[in-house]
Structures are given as structure tokens and as C-alpha cells.
Design goal:
Order of helices and strands: HHHHHEEHHHEHHEE
Strand order of the largest sheet: 3-5-4
Strand content: 5-15%
Largest sheet: 3 strands, antiparallel
Distance between the termini: 56 Å
Radius of gyration: 25 Å
Helix content: over 70%
Shape: flat
Number of strands: 5
Length: 271
Amino acid sequence: MMRWLLAAYRDPRTYTGLAYMLAVLPLGIAGFTVTVTGLAAGAGLMVTLAGVPILVGTLLFARTFARLNRRLAWTLLDAPVSQITPIRDEGSGYFWGRLRSLIGARDTTGEVCFSLLSLPLAIVAFVVAVTILWSAVAGFALPVVTALGGATELGTWRIDTPAESLIFLPISVLFLAVGPRLLLGWGGLIGRVVASLVGRVNFTELKSGVVSILARRGEADGFTILGDLRLRFGRSPSLTPLEVKAALLVLESNRVVIPTRREASTSYRLA
């Protein structure tokens, strides 16, 4: 058990996750504020058509904000998110076609939801990180503070002597043991939240990835394609056999790929 707890000290994700949880608060404030303000102003001015560019700007901000957070989550939390810039289905036509595609895309909904949730998520992450840090060092710092003439209060109890401050020492010892493991666990939870909202590989990316793999390999079965997609995109939660099968069926119906069915498996090649 102790070896398992101490192993977190050797895991780089402990420290990068702590950096993420401490740094994400200003990002959360910015993302939430801009998104809420833009949506409210755009909806209120929609009757005058002045709200259209505001809403479009807000959606584009949410997209950029999600891309930044996805990159941070991948780099600092080792989150299972797509590691490349998403390919977007821009829609047909010019401005109005692309606008409809932007508003109606499932990715856009996830990006806006993430921007709105970024502040509460950032607050919780920051509070957890600060609480763990403070609990780990308080028992060692307070005796020094009280010895230098300082004091602290715990409810109605004023702690102003080194002997009284030793009450926090067992708590700090406990958090020194379990704190890194708690940081790893919480960082993993945040990473999964980011992955579920903005870390998925969208269907356009998936189809493009399948086509590029078949262009390189010539012919491959579904499991080989899935393995190559995971190497290409990373550990995205949307890279499942079912999603890959759906992409292959769509490409087959559009006559982009041709299946070759054998007794035990089916392989695919470009038409």
C-alpha cells in the first residue's frame, strides 16, 4: 500500500496535474464570462440581426477555447482526447451554409457546454489542489509561524503557540502520503470530463482517418483500421469498434471503400 502511495511522487502527472488545476481558474473565468456574455447579447439582439455576428463570434470563441483546453488536458493530464485539430464539415455554400453547419454541429454544442462548465470545474479543481497543498504543509509551517509570533484561528480556538500548532502535524503527514494519489485521481477525473465534452473524434475526422489509412495500407480489416486510428488520434473515447464500423458503412454506402468479405473477417480498400 505504501509503495502504491509513494509511486505517485514519481509520476510526472502528479505535478503536471497540479499545475493544470492551479492554472485553469483564470481560463475558466474567461471562458465562462465571454460565452455567457456573448450568448446573452447575441440572443437579445437577434431581432435586429446584430446578434448574428455576436453569436457566431461566441461560437468561434468556444471552439478556440475548447481547442486550448483539449491541448492542455492532453499535455498536462494525459487525458484521452484527440491529439490533432478536428476536421470540420464546413457545409455547402458560402456564409449561410457554413453558419448552419457551425450552429448545428454536435461538436459546437459540446464546445459551448464545456465553456459554460469551465468555471465551476475550474473552481472545484483549484479548491481541491489548494486544500491538498495546504493540508500537506500546514502541520510543518504552523509551528514555525507561531514560533515567530504569528497565530491562526480554528473556529473560536486561537492557536498561537508551537505546542498547540502540532495538532495539525498528523493531518499533514497523512496528506503527504495520500495527497499525490488524490491529485492523480482528480486529474484523471478532470481529463475524462474534458474528453467527454471536447475530446471526441468527430465523424468527419473518423471518415477522413479511415480513408487515409486505406490509402496508405491498400487494404485492411476493421481491427487494423481501429488500431491505426488510435495511433493517429490518441486515446479518444469515441474511437470504438462500433464508431469505426459506422464510418466504414457510410463510406461503403457512398462507394468510397469496397469491402471484401471472407469467412472470418471483412477487409476494406478504396474504390
